[in-house]
Design a protein that fits this description.
By secondary structure, this protein is α/β, with parallel strands linked by helices. Helix content is 63%, strand content 10%. The protein has helices spanning 18-29, 32-66, 69-118, 121-125, 129-171, 173-180, 183-220, 222-227, 231-281, 289-331, 391-398, 421-425, 442-446, 455-464, 468-473, 491-504, 521-535, 570-576, 579-590, and strands spanning 352-360, 366-375, 380-384, 406-411, 414-415, 428-431, 440-441, 481-482, 509-513, 539-543, 555-560, 563-568. A hairpin with a 2-residue loop joins strand 11 (555-560) and strand 12 (563-568). The structure holds adenosine-5'-triphosphate.
Length: 591
Amino acid sequence: MARNKFDIDENLESPFNIKHFKRALVYIRKQQKPMIIAFLLSAISAGVALSAPLIIQHVVDVTIPSKDKSALLFWSGMTLLTIIVSVILATIRSRIMTRVGQDIIFDIRTDLFKHLQKLPFQYYDDRPQGKILIRVVNYVNSVSDVLSNGIINFILEILNLIFIAIFMFAVDVKLSFVILGGLPIFAGVILLIKNKQRRAWQAVSNKSSNMNAYMQESISGIRVTQIFTREKRNEGTFTRLSTNYRNVWMRAMYFNFLIPFSVDNLATIVTTAIYFVGLITLGPEEITFGVILAMSSYAARFWQPILNLSNLYNSFINAVSYLERIFETLDEPVTVSDIPNARTLPPIQGRVTFDNMTFAYDPGHNILENLSFDIKAGESVALVGPTGAGKTTVVNLISRFYNVSDGRILIDGHDVAEVKLESLRSQMGIMLQDSFIFSGTIMDNIRYGKLDATEEEVIAAAKTVCADEFIREFENGYMTEVNERGSKLSQGQRQLISFARTLLANPRILILDEATSSIDARTERLLQKGLNELLKGRTSFIIAHRLSTVKNCDRIMYVADKGIAESGSHDELIAMRGRYYRLYTAQKMEA
Ligand SMILES: Nc1ncnc2c1ncn2[C@@H]1O[C@H](COP(=O)(O)OP(=O)(O)OP(=O)(O)O)[C@@H](O)[C@H]1O
């Protein structure tokens, strides 16, 4: 699929519309109280600050001509007081808003994380991890300021504008219209660049996402890179992605600069126009020098909020391109979820039935077709066959990691599509090919699926899979810290730890996908003994390429040609002299 690549831009599946912003309001609404307080503080602070030009006008026109020193001192003190009050209020407001901003992104990030936890395997199959990560981390951070301070500032600036307009019209109507004259030109500039600017910011989010995806992929694959000495070539790829990002960023910033640049110039033109109009009409009755001074101060003050609004507009356009991605992720359908009124799967015996089941990862390309088999509770089944035949797919479907395209999969007669996922998966012990190790202690890792397991239970599980011995050899034994992916451990050690983790849950159905492929022959033999004991009474599906490890299974199914090509016990399949026989004898000769 196209998006499953670092250098392919993600198309937006749902283009931005105002509904997205309304959804953002859901998060903002939760912060209503502190936001209203912050808003009131700002309004008072702005109102106080606005009285300064009036004081100036009074001082120039009345106090200075009357040479009243004590009045002059009083008004100077008042001006200082307005500054102090504004600063105090602004400081309290900024503290409140920092908190609000963080609370908003906390909520969005939590929702994203919760949703990502529920998204099915298919979602992760289809896109690079870097593109997912950047949404949760960078994009969410980028929208925090707009959704908190941005909203308040927007309202405040509008109010500020109204206040200034009222003050300004109270002082002089004619000059006020001169100040307002620049507005239509400004609106024209915005209209002209609006769409281009939005597209430019979408390109920025795309290119940063691509760069992030490649960075993530490169870090994960660093060992292979160094083995194949691909460093130079990878640098080239990264430089290309980084250059693309820089270029689109420059273009987006060009539009961003354009707006404040227009505002700045318009403000200068308007101020000059005030002097010009004032000069023509200046007269003792018409306009006093104090009025001109106050009006030019208002002109600067009037255009300042417009400049601020234009900066807010820039941030808004920028944030919209991130919000689109965030909500797109939140809207990603959880295609594998409980159906309405799903039943809880009762404690199972372990019978597994595939009833004419067909499955495709991508519609139209069936991996398995009309598959039917019935496994009795307690039976051990081996799935063998060529690479890519569909063995892992079969076991992934039992736990409903994907939805079947047609037919049914039943456990003890219950359709897996109709029972609660948690009740289904919690009764399975699944060990995937990727023995993922989480950061934490070995004890934490074994206990991962059963948090209430006692230390004794953890140790017993480790003993069963012959992991106890090597774990105790570490200085801190079970409390040894391992890092993410378990890079301090050997591949075989990782497998044994994840094996113990699977067993700890004491599942009725056990699925082992290449569980012992990296374990040495001696440990495997020991493990096999423990395992045979453990498998008794449980249904188990074991995928293995080394046939010697599965020949004792009750049933061996040879997966090929979109189905089960051969099925029977080892002896039966050998007697058939078919594909299993050929594979087995070939492996025996190699050994
Ligand atoms: N997430 C996926 N999206 C699309 N196709 C997939 C996906 N996973 C597997 N396939 C395809 O489905 C087929 C069966 O894959 P599967 O992993 O089940 O094979 P397997 O028999 O377990 O192989 P192996 O022995 O190599 O583990 C393969 O052709 C593979 O390319």
